[in-house]
Amino acid sequence: MKNSLRCLQLLGIALLPFAAHAANVDVDIKLADANYLEISFALPEHCTALAFLKDGRGGQEIRAAWQKQNDCATAEGDLLKSAGACTARFRVPATMQKISGYPGSFPAPGGMYVHSSNYALADSCGPVRYRFQAADIVMNGQRYHDTATPPAATGGDTSAMLMLTPQNSATLDYFDPRLSAATVARVNEVADGTIALLSKQLPLAVFTRPAIAAIGASEPGGPNVGGDASNILRLTFFNWPQTMGPGEQELLTTFVSHEFSHRFQLRDAVDVYPDSRLINEGGAEFLRWLTSIQKGWLSRQRAAAQLDKALAECTLYTEGKSWRALTPREIGGQRLEYLCGLPTYVYSLAARQGRGTAMGRFDRFYHQLRQGQVPDFAQALECGDTKACTPQVLPALLSSGPTMEQQWNEVLRKTGLATLRPPSQSLRDRMVLRAVVKLMVDDCAGRSGTTETPEGIILDGMKVCKSIHKDSYATSIEGHPVFGDAATGAAMKAACLARHEVTLGLKDGGKLVMPCQEPYAMREAFYSVDIEKTLALLLREQGTQ
Ligand SMILES: [Zn+2]
User: How does residue 15 score in pLDDT terms, banded at 50, 70 and 90?
Assistant: First the structure.
């Protein structure tokens, strides 16, 4: 009996691959060359249309760059259309262009960062199996050669570093040879320090160390960063100098610590919250900010400056709207989930009620999510387990009532954690830019397009504009330099009120006179945090680190 059963089992196992094969879709992601991937979709019979999981405009724009290699299938709209029973092949060029979600073929010397979500298909023709092919592959915490198959459940949501030649590195991390030794050392220091501190202060978090892919790249403009935090934690450094100045040091620390902080959160589990973007990005900002202060990477003075700048820009860009009235596009376009997110976490956790550390509240919120609960965000952060406690800060800030600026005024007046100060020159410059954008929006039927430079602002000429017929490079406004002059904003306002127009001096010597019905509301003051008091509250009961 026992023997025959085993026989049947063996038979079943032996038959399974053949039986299952007919109804599978196989997606192969192969590194063909330094410049492109070869993607193949093996489709079963009768499988004539399959939906791409990365859909909508972003997905279609990404697929527009794919080059069809045979006649098996075409990518049309959000569908892969085919006659079935064939293998469709596409060439996907390496690109640094950020369109939507994780990049699909991000170049790095010697290989590429890839993310399978760009090639993921619905399972309506049967289970979809994914496979990476390259001489050297790092995926899900391991190194493979030639082929790597991610687990079935997460195959369409997997990042990998594909290399053209076998690597003999002691770690799974990839560091672009174009990055300086100092940059590499600093990335490692910040990564290790962030992991050590957060592992201790967020003991309930389930942390697995991702492999780093640090890539140097160039783009127009100055030094900049960009990345994401899946199992391959991608850190791209644009136009990065060999020797970092204090500005680059701070940017690197902020960036690396932010990305590693994400690894102590949950990405998908917060999608059910209306403020998921703010919970996610604001949370990573908060963790990296408090970590950097505790590690001594950020002085209290710089930490205060970062917080004040974020809050000032949050109030400038939410412009007359409540948080709830902002569209996802308005939030994403100005990075409000970061700018409003950091002060939202800092001030709500500083004002938390009852016992327990700020980090403990954060930890417990994610712990509950991990267990399948959907705790109230405001209650979890401000009250925790405290009995008879009503959150005061988050429900007001994230409401649909008064404007976000009015809510901040109310919250900060009540908590006394920040006071109003005259704007810095850099905030005055921000407001001048906002005022120019307002002139443009009013002139161009609601549209605007501007580029900032150290010398001024380039306004894109558009057909819909009444006054801006061609690209115009403004270097002065009402006789004042565009940026760096404390009086420019006031001069704009005065001209608008007196003459209902504002005169921009152009770099080519010309003039652009723009109509102005109503001046932009220049703010006279912005909040400055009482950093000692706020940190004392944030770190109360934290003990010494
Ligand atoms: Zn982030």
Answer: very low
